[in-house]
Design goal:
Layout lengths: L1 H8 L9 H33 L2 H27 L14 H29 L8 H28 L2 H26 L7 H29 L5 H11 L5 E11 L5 E10 L4 H19 L1 E10 L4 H17 L4 E9 L4 E8 L8 H12 L6 E8 L4
Parallel strand pairs: 2-3, 5-6
Antiparallel strand pairs: 1-2, 4-5
Helix pairs in contact: 2-3, 2-5, 3-4, 3-6, 3-7, 4-6, 4-7, 5-6, 6-7, 8-9, 10-11
Length: 388
C-alpha cells in the first residue's frame, strides 16, 4: 500500500534530497494522516458518547489533535521546501525540526488535558456502558493506527525525515493507548471500579511519553548532534580513494535540514607531493562528495612528512605512549623541531568527550612517559575534540 501511494502521488520518488520531492512526500504523509485521524475522531466520539466512556472520548480528541498536527506538518514541509534566500542562505530545511517541536508540544498539551480528565473520572466515576460496536470500533482504530505508524516510519526512513519518524512514534503510542481503552471497556463488564479513569491515565502516560521522546530527538537536531557514522564513513571512503591521501581528521558536518549539509575536514598528503596536482585532486573530491551525497564539503590540505626516519621514530613512540594512556586517544598534525639539547614534539591530541582526566593531566602523563627516554623531549600539544 505504501509503495503504491508513493508511486501515485510522488514524482521522482528516489530523488530524496530534492526539496520539491521531499515536499511531495510530506504532503502525502499529511493528507493520509488528516483523513485517517478525522475519520477515527468521528467514530470514537460517537461511540464514546454512546458508552459514556471518558477514555474513548479522550482517545477521540487525541486523534483530533493528531489531525491538527498533520496540518502543521503539511505547512512545515511547504516552508522547508522554500529555496535559499538573502536572509536564509542555507535554505529553510530546519523548518522540519521546528515542526517536530510544535507537534510534540501539541501532544504534551493533549496528554496533560487527558490526565486531568481521567483523574477526575477516577474520583468521580460514572457508569460505563459496554457495547460490542464500541469495542469493534476501537479494535479497528488500533489496526488503522498501527498501519499509519508503519506507513510514516517507512516514508521517514526513505527520506530521512525526523517529522515522519515523530509522527510514526505518535501513531504507535496511539495504538497502545486505544488498546488500553478497549481493555477498560471490557473490564466495565466485570467490575464497578473506576477502570475507565485508570485506563485514561495510562493512555495519557503513553501520549506524554511520546511527546517527550519527540522533543528530545528534535532538540538534539537543533542543538547539533554528530553526523551519522554511515555519512562520515562514506565521506572518508570518497576522500581516501586516491593513494595520495594518507589520512583524514578534523571532520565537522553541519546539518541545515535533511538534504542540506555543509562540512569541512583536513586531508593529509605527503609533503613531497606536487601541491598543484594535489590541489586539483582535492577540488575533484569536493565535487564528487557533493555529487554523491549533496554535501558541500571544504577540504584543507595538511602536508605530512612521512619519509623522515627520525620523525617516524618519534611518531611511533608517541603513538605507543598515547595508546597506553587510553586507546580512545589519537593525534594528528605531528611534526618535530630539533634543537641542540632537546626535540620538540608538536601535535594535536584528539580527546573524546567524557574522559575523566583534564588536558593538563594528559600532558603530564605524556611528558612523564617521554622523560624515561634517553633523548630529552618537550611537547607542544593542541587539545582537540572529535565532532563526528
Amino acid at each position: 500500500m505504501t509503495e503504491l501511494l508513493v508511486r501515485l502521488f510522488v514524482k521522482n520518488p528516489e530523488n530524496i534530497n530534492d526539496s520539491h520531492t521531499r515536499g511531495k512526500y510530506g504532503t502525502l504523509s499529511s493528507v493520509v494522516g488528516i483523513i485517517c485521524n478525522l475519520l477515527l475522531f468521528a467514530l470514537k466520539y460517537i461511540m464514546g458518547t454512546l458508552s459514556n466512556s471518558i477514555a474513548v472520548i479522550s482517545d477521540a480528541f487525541n486523534n483530533l489533535s493528531d489531525g491538527a498536527s498533520c496540518i502543521v506538518t503539511l505547512l512545515g514541509y511547504k516552508m522547508a521546501a522554500k529555496p535559499a534566500d538573502k536572509d536564509h542562505p542555507f535554505g529553510h530545511g530546519r523548518m522540519e525540526y521546528l515542526v517536530s517541536l510544535i507537534i510534540s508540544a501539541l501532544i504534551l498539551m493533549m496528554g496533560l488535558e487527558l490526565m486531568k480528565n481521567s483523574c477526575t473520572k477516577i474520583f468521580h466515576p460514572e457508569e460505563v456502558k459496554f457495547s460490542a460496536a464500541v469495542f469493534v470500533s476501537l479494535i479497528v482504530s488500533v489496526g488503522v493506527k498501527l498501519w499509519m505508524s508503519l506507513f510514516n516510519m517507512t516514508l521517514g526512513k526513505k527520506i530521512n525525515s525526523s517529522v515522519m519518524t515523530a509522527t510514526a512514534k505518535d501513531s504507535r503510542s496511539d495504538a497502545f493507548a486505544t488498546a488500553a481503552t478497549a481493555a477498560a471497556l471490557v473490564c466495565s463488564l466485570f467490575t464497578d471500579a473506576p477502570i475507565d479513569g485508570i485506563m485514561g491515565v495510562i493512555v495519557s502516560l503513553f501520549i506524554l511519553r511520546a511527546g517527550i521522546g519527540i522533543i528530545k530527538d528534535t532538540v538534539d537536531e537543533l542543538l547539533g548532534k554528530p553526523a551519522a557514522p554511515e555519512i562520515t564513513d562514506q565521506i572518508r571512503s570518497i576522500i581516501c580513494c586516491d593513494d595520495r591521501i594518507i589520512g583524514v581528521h578534523d571532520m565537522i558536518i553541519h546539518d541545515y535540514g535533511p538534504g542540506n549539509m555543509i562540512g569541512s575536514c583536513h586531508a593529509e598528503v605527503r609533503s613531497s607531493e606536487d601541491f598543484v596536482s594535489v590541489h586539483d585532486l582535492i577540488d575533484r573530491i569536493e565535487r564528487e562528495i557533493h555529487k554523491q551525497m549533496k554535501i558541500l564539503m571544504t577540504i584543507h590540505m595538511d602536508p605530512i612528512e612521512v619519509d623522515n626516519e627520525q620523525i617516524n621514530s618519534c611518531r611511533s613512540l608517541l603513538a605507543e605512549i598515547i595508546g597506553s594512556i587510553d586507546e580512545r586517544l589519537s593525534f594528528h598534525d605531528f611534526r618535530t623541531v630539533t634543537g641542540d639539547t632537546h626535540v620538540n614534539l608538536i601535535f594535536d591530541l584528539v580527546v573524546p568527550f567524557g574522559m575523566d582526566c583534564t588536558d593538563d593531566e594528559l600532558k603530564n602523563q605524556i611528558d612523564t612517559a617521554l622523560a624515561k627516554e634517553s633523548i630529552q623531549y618537550y611537547t607542544v600539544i593542541t587539545f582537540d575534540r572529535e565532532y563526528t
